[in-house]
Amino acid sequence: MAPGIKIVGRFLEILQVEDNDGDARLLKQALKKAGFPSRLNSVSTGEAALDFLNKKNIYSAATRPDVILLDLKLPGKDGLTLLNEIRQSPDFKNIPVIVLTSSESDLDQDWAARLNANHYLVKPFDFEGFAELIKILREQWMKTFRKRRP
């Protein structure tokens, strides 16, 4: 946490939509090592992400995420389709979405921008890259916290 900032009892609720277990573990480890105040929920498909957001099936007790980390290459419903559905939903369109993918495709980046992704990041392969991701999450957390302060 940045010096001088002390926030008690508030976590950034993160929904990670990622089908690669190794990448999911790396993010979890990076958040823990950074001491970042977050709660990470992970799902591996676009369909499961919609169930989580809509509190359906096994996700009936799910917490509304403050931010979604979205891989584009998912089995079944791909990330861009899911992003479009999130942005079309009155209930979820204002949740910040950070695309976190291995795709460096200009076409994917253009589509993500057209669908109003908040950030587009190519998955880091080293810890420094994940540190940069955590910096972006920290900035988003502060924006979220400020909006919810009494």
Element layout with pairings:
Elements: E1 12-17, H1 21-34, E2 38-43, H2 46-53, E3 67-70, H3 79-88, E4 97-101, H4 106-114, E5 119-122, H5 127-148
Parallel strand pairs: 1-2, 1-3, 3-4, 4-5
Structure overview:
- This protein is of the alpha/beta class and 150 residues long.
- Helices cover 42% and strands 17% of the residues.
- It has 5 helices and 5 strands; from the N terminus they run βαβαβαβαβα.
- It has helices at 21-34, 46-53, 79-88, 106-114, 127-148; strands at residues 12-17, 38-43, 67-70, 97-101, 119-122.
- The longest helix has 22 residues, at 127-148.
- Residues 1-8 have low confidence and may be disordered.
What strand order characterises the main sheet?
A: 2-1-3-4-5
Question: What's the structural domain tally?
Answer: 1
Put simply, the count of helices is: 5
Shape: globular
Classification by helices and strands: alpha/beta
- Level-2 CATH architecture: 3-Layer(aba) Sandwich
Number of strands: 5
Roughly what fraction of the amino acids lie in strands?
15-25%
CATH superfamily, by name, is Response regulator
The percentage helix is 40-55%
Main β-sheet, in a few words?
5 strands, parallel
Average pLDDT rating = 84
- Which series of helices and strands comes N to C? EHEHEHEHEH
Provide tags for this entry.
single chain; alpha/beta; Rossmann fold; disordered N terminus
Quick overview:
By secondary structure, the chain is an alpha/beta fold. Helices cover 42% and strands 17% of the residues.
